[in-house]
Amino acid sequence: MGMPCEVNSILKLKPSQGYPTQLEKGQRYQAQKEGYRIIPVDVPIPLVDENWLARVDIKICRLVWENGVTNLEFEIDRIYRVPMLTKEF
Length: 89
Fold this sequence. Notes:
- This protein has one domain (6-85): CATH 2.40.240.20.
- Strands 2-5-6-7-3 form a 5-stranded mixed beta sheet, with no helix packed on it. The chain has a two-stranded parallel ribbon with strand order 1-4.
- By secondary structure, it is mainly beta.
- The chain has strands spanning 6-7, 11-12, 28-34, 37-38, 45-48, 53-66, 69-85.
- The protein is built from no helices and 7 strands.
- The chain is globular and about 45 Å long.
- The chain starts with 5 loop residues before the first strand and ends with a strand.
């Protein structure tokens, strides 16, 4: 028997999951994702919105698995000059 988990190299959030309304460098935020996620900690990764648009790189500061949910605390590391689309539709 194994533990179901997903490996992510970016963090995609909806506003209901904790996508920040204000993006400020150095600011810390909290978010939640359903299921168990493996995400790099202490290295910059893109944060994308529900439309797969990246505006910032973040560093995960804290990651906790609990009751089928991944709880995250992250800090904005870099704000892009121009947003970047990370997925073509």
